[in-house]
Write a structure and sequence with these properties.
The complex is a heterodimer of chains A (312) and B (128).
Chain A lengths: L1 H20 L5 H25 L2 H73 L4 H7 L1 H29 L3 H20 L2 H4 L1 H29 L5 H31 L19 H23 L8
Helix pairs in contact in A: 1-2, 2-3, 3-5, 3-9, 3-10, 4-5, 5-6, 5-8, 5-9, 8-9, 9-10
Chain B lengths: L15 H10 L4 E2 H11 L8 H13 L3 E4 L14 E4 L1 H23 L16
Antiparallel strand pairs in B: 1-3, 2-3
Helix pairs in contact in B: 1-2
Classes of the chains: A mainly alpha (312), B mainly alpha (128).
Chain lengths: 312, 128
């Protein structure tokens, strides 16, 4: 009987010590499994004491101490790893958000600048009785004007796709919406030509559709690449920003070409009185503004496409 | 983190202690101490899990969806309400099966290299 009391006391003290040593484990692990571990320890300790003798307790404690040392270190390490992972993921999340914001802001800024410059050009030339004469004299002038107009409309469609990816979940839904918007913009923008000049309409429409499709595909390629590093929806929006940027690049090239051809110095007779006869006329200012906005957009997209490295 | 891939191959190779725990749970629900005893007995004392290692492994198996806690209790006189019972999930069984196949393939290679006799029955002394 005294031996039994001795064993019981040894069991109680061992369990108390084990409970104390459990503090080597992370608190979450201790909270979830602490009591269960104490239960298993108590059972094992009781078996060791009953089947063998008190000397067996020393061997049992050696084994248990080694187990605590190894498993607590490993568990603490996994908690540290989880924290590092969570921290890295959250940093990457913030970075990718910032990259996308920069891309959207610079793209929108460049679009607004190009739209303003193109509208200004349209309002000046469309209202001028001399426009047709000038176009008849210079096919390049006509081409650059049409290119500016068509690319502005196509850029507007691409901007809608950024909004589409922000609002809709699926690429298919966005593609359908963009197709409908493209038709509305095309017919709203130059639908009148269908009756007056059907051939011109067909040519412009083909150019417009080609621009929209090519820019959309380019955006998809960029999005596919970006999706390996950032969340899919953000990658799609980034791809749409690149679509807008690519169209605006053509737009600004056409605008520059047109403005140079219209330069009052080389076309002194054209639009006399409507465009100021100096280098500082409104068309030049609008072109330079759109060009600078395009450079900012390019810089923004370049920054946005430098993705933060993700923790694997 | 729950295992989202549902690909058993992604979890291989299993550490020996983990595989022994899965084997101990095939066809029977067990509590922590029961698992410890079973693995010890199956491995002829070679796998002697301490409570820390046992519950670290059980935590990972629960997270990966290989085992789950069982709500069923044994008959009242055999039950200890402090005990938690674990059982294998279908995915856990699948993982154990794939790991067994992997080990069997290794044995076949060892047999081909004449490290093991063709019968594959190995005695503790190393003979057939």
């Amino acid at each position: 009987m005294p031996n039994e009391q001795y064993k019981n006391r040894a069991l109680t003290i061992s369990t108390w010590c084990y409970r104390l040593l459990l503090h080597a484990y992370p608190s979450s692990f201790r909270h979830d499994f602490g009591e269960r571990m104490i239960g298993v320890f108590r059972d094992s300790c009781r078996t060791a004491l009953q089947q063998h003798n008190i000397q067996a307790l020393i061997a049992f404690w050696l084994h248990t101490s080694f187990d605590i040392l190894i498993s607590s270190c490993l568990e603490q390490w996994s908690v540290v790893k989880e924290k590092i992972y969570a921290m890295t993921t959250s940093t990457n999340e913030r970075q990718s958000q910032l990259h996308l914001r920069v891309a959207r802001a610079t793209t929108l800024f460049a679009f607004i600048a190009s739209l303003a410059a193109s509208l200004h050009l349209y309002l000046l030339e469309d209202a001028s009785p001399l426009t047709q004469t000038a176009y008849a004299a210079s096919p390049i002038l006509r081409f650059s004007y049409d290119a500016t107009y068509i690319t502005t409309l196509a850029a507007a469609v691409a901007v809608c796709s950024i909004v589409g990816y922000a609002l809709l979940q699926r690429t298919t839904q966005v593609a359908i919406s963009i197709s409908i918007i493209s038709l509305l913009i095309a017919f709203g923008g130059f639908g009148g030509l269908l009756i007056r000049h059907p051939m011109n309409f067909l040519m412009l429409f083909s150019l417009f559709v080609a621009l929209v499709i090519i820019s959309f595909l380019l955006g998809q390629v960029v999005a596919k690449h970006a999706a390996q590093r950032i969340e899919k929806r953000r990658a799609l929006m980034l791809g749409a920003c690149v679509s807008v940027g690519s169209i605006l690049l053509i737009n600004i090239a056409a605008l520059i070409l047109h403005t140079i051809l219209l330069n009052p110095v080389s076309h002194a007779l054209y639009m006399q009185g409507q465009i100021a006869g100096t280098h500082w006329n409104s068309l030049l200012i609008a072109m330079v503004a759109a060009f600078l906005a395009m450079i900012i957009c390019g810089g923004g997209l370049k920054y946005a496409l430098r993705f933060p490295a993700l923790q694997s | 983190m729950k295992n989202n891939t549902n690909d058993p191959e992604a979890l291989l190779p299993l550490p020996p202690a983990t595989f022994h725990i899965l084997l101990a749970l095939i066809g029977e629900e067990r509590h922590g101490y029961g698992i410890m005893q079973e693995t010890n007995s199956r491995s002829e004392g070679k796998i002697n899990l301490g409570p820390g290692t046992l519950y670290r492994t059980l935590k990972r198996l629960l997270t990966d969806g290989l085992i789950e806690e069982s709500a069923e209790r044994p008959v009242a006189e055999l039950d200890d309400e402090r005990r938690h019972y674990y059982r294998l999930t279908p995915f856990g069984l699948q993982v154990a099966r794939v790991e067994a196949q992997r080990l069997a393939a290794l044995v076949r290679i060892a047999q081909a290299q004449q490290l093991l006799p063709r019968s594959g029955i190995v005695t503790p002394g190393g003979g057939a």
